[in-house]
Amino acid sequence: MSNPKKTPAKRIQCLSLKMVREKPSILYPQRKISSPREAAELFRQFIGDSDREVFCIMTLDTKNQPTALHEVSRGTLNASLVHPRETFKLAIMANAASIIACHNHPSGLPDPSREDVELTERIRDAGSLMGIELLDHLVLGENRFASMKERGLM
C-alpha cells in the first residue's frame, strides 16, 4: 500500500493530516460547537487536571465544527507564555476559519486576569488581520469556566 517513491517525511505528513481530521470526531461526536459550555467541556477533556497553566486553541471550520485541538503553550503554576505567532501558525496549518482559545487557572478560580484580557485582545487583533476570527477565550477553573465573550471582555 505504501508508495515507494514517497519519502518518509511525506508519509508522516499525510499521517499527521489524517490524525488532525479524525481526532475531533472521536472527542466530540456532535461535531458542532454552539455554546461556550460545549467548548469548555471539550477543552476540559483535552487539558485535564494540569497543575500548570496550559494555553490551547480549538480550530474550527466554517460550520463551527472542530478540526483540531492544539496545545500552544504549557507554563508554570500561574503563567504561560503565549504569542499570537505560535497561536496562528497552528490555526493556519489546520486551515481554520476561526478559533476558540482556552487556558486553565490551576488556582481553581476562572476569573480572567488583566493579562488574560490583554492577550485576548492581541490574539483577536492578529486574527482579524489574517481573516481567522477569535470566537471566544475561555478560562477553566475548578468545576467552572469563564467566557470572555459572555463577560464582554473581547
From TrEMBL:
CDD domains: MPN_DUF2466. Residues 32-154 form the MPN domain. InterPro entries: MPN, RadC_JAB, UPF0758, UPF0758_CS. PROSITE patterns: MPN, UPF0758. It comes from Saccharibacillus kuerlensis. Pfam families: RadC. Keywords: Hydrolase, Metal-binding, Metalloprotease, Protease, Zinc. The lineage of its organism: Bacteria, Bacillati, Bacillota, Bacilli, Bacillales. This is MPN domain-containing protein. Belongs to the UPF0758 family.
